[in-house]
Amino acid sequence: MNDRNCLIGVDAGTSVVKAVAFDRHGNEICVHEAPMPLRRPEPLWIEQDMTELWEMVTLCLRQVAVRLRESGWEVEGLGITSTGDGTWIIDAEGKPVRGGILWCDGRSGKVVERLHAQGVAEQAFDICGTSVFTGSQAAQLIWLRENEPESLKRGHVIFHAKDWLFYKLTGLITSDETDESLTMLSMASRQYDRQLFKIFGIEDLYPKFPPVKPTVDNVGPLLADVARDLGLSKGLPVGSGPMDVAACALGTGAIEHGQASSILGTAGIHEVIMDKPILEPRMVGMTLCHGVNGRWMRMLAAMTATPNLDWFLKELGTGYGLEAREAGEDVYEHLGKLVESVPAGAEGVIFHPYLFPGGERGPFVKPTARASFTGLNLNHTRQHLLRAVYEGVAFATLDCYRHMPIDPKSVLLSGGGASSAVWCQILADCLGKSVSVPEGSQFGAKGAALNVGNAVGVYRDAQEAVAESVRVARTYEPDASNTRLYHELYEVYRLTAERQMDLWDRRAEIIARKP
Asked: pTM for this structure?
């Protein structure tokens, strides 16, 4: 790879699609992004239009290809990553059967409760190391069988999101170890386990699942007609994977045993890297294959992270944007100052960040879980609530790391939340660990680019890819006094959630009643 050769990574996320070009050293050359609308045809449903997702990807790729040609760059490989979990189905002609069901969709809540109550989820965990939640493909397939059997009947291949995009780019029907880890692979063999299909009662769907490959081998040539449309070279190597959370881990340099990576994005993703699968603690979180050979990941994923702040701004933070404009500040810089005006602990206000319709999945699975503020009195202001939102996401992060089989010494942080110095410091204080933010901003796309770079020989292996391209931009050290306070408040946070479990169920029963 010479100085004018580059790699492209595409990250097709929940709400935004990005195409990013990188040089060999991991520097971002150019980026184009486009919003990806979500469909909510029913209150608990969250979907993406499969054709529209493909169109957004092609839009972003065309723009990046034009800018690279104008600057004299040669593209050596294209990597694709996208959201994990969920269900994407095509028919025998390669056309979408229905909308893609996302990981944050909540329609399978009753199915998940049944799978746990009947012991099915526990049987599956012993093989795959993942606790079933509403975004799990197995739960969604069961829901489809019971509610939309015609979709499964018409379905020829059951994909994940990036598999659909890879199919459109190359015409190949495959998946990789990272996506299929959740929940249909044996962690021991890194291959499908027919017993899992039998346990879930979907054994007849096994032939509809694509072949599963090691991520670095999941590569194919770009179709000629697609290449012409995108302005890229015919036969350009296209790599599919890893899925977004594993791609972010690779893109931030978390590839060795004991390293930790957190993503504060739409979800709060928290991972430790393992050199062998450790399925402990039981029935908590997820175990998946890393996009790196010989590595696994233990992952606990809170359903929502930065959307808690988005919701607060929209519903309770009216006026903050105007204040920021009048002060000539970025709105998030302004919010950071407001948060710092309130003492650590928000003077007793605690926020539980369970805003998504699918409830919570890490470190516990509870489809009926819902967000709340507690500890309010007349002396509290909007600023207290605002700080409590930042801290609530940090408490959820600590809750996940307290349930990991490995206690990491430090955490690599990415995602939108990593751009906030205040949030990074709160996380460091809450965790009691160093929090480091790598250089750059597009770590999912970067991980996909590094994977295809490894596949085509730009790098000898993932270790060289990380050594060549990952650097830390800034590090936040914990304040010991704040850490002590947060750890005491965390116990209140944890017990408050535990004692609401039955109340969440009761509330859901009442709301679900027909008038």
From this structure: 0.87
